[in-house]
């Protein structure tokens, strides 16, 4: 533990990592302008799946990187887990700079943001976003721990499956929203999450 970074440094790293979340959110806003209303769900679902696949990829790759070289070292190679993000982030920045289309019909208007903050729908949608995407992040983060506790020998090897299945299902939700309506998919999603969370609680208590 004495080799770990001080807590303020960890907070700074976490804050800088938040740029990744901001980048993902901005890409969702950006892509919605390029598709008609009848196809926005599918487009946003595909874009979200591509972004969320990073969670599954990290959970799959990082454990191998951390233990890489363990045969010649007395401790896991924890710093390598951070370095693997550097080339990916630089490549993404380069591609965005060279090929990402700027929107001429959208601008950062402070007055519009203040008007939006006074609208009840803004707060309702924010709550729904926290409940849906926030739940995905929470479930994806805790899934490896739950699997490891339930299956100590194999749990961590399968940890990436939670985020992978969740990511790949997002285009299906977007397509369904285009066909039956966003509110239907939202309600069904919240009910499914409630059932899943309740099932996890019951399973943990029985174990």
Return Rg in Å: 20 Å
- Tally the helices: what do you get? 8
Principal-axes shape call? globular
Strand content bin:
under 5%
List the uncertain runs. Answer: none
- Please write the string of helix (H) and strand (E) elements: HHHHHHHH
Question: pLDDT average, as an integer?
Answer: 81
- Biggest pleated-sheet summary: none
Class based on secondary structure composition and strand pairing:
mainly alpha
The N- to C-terminal Cα distance equals: 31 Å
The level of helicity is over 70%
Tell how many strands the DSSP assignment holds: 0
Structure notes:
The chain has 207 residues and is mainly alpha-helical. Helix content is 76%, strand content 0%. Helix 1 runs antiparallel to helix 2 and helix 7 packs antiparallel against helix 8. The two termini are 31 Å apart. The mean pLDDT is 81.
Task: Compile the SSE list and pairings.
Layout: H1 7-31, H2 40-67, H3 79-83, H4 85-99, H5 110-117, H6 120-150, H7 160-180, H8 182-206
Helix pairs in contact: 1-2, 2-7, 6-7, 6-8, 7-8
Offer a few descriptive terms.
207 residues, mainly alpha
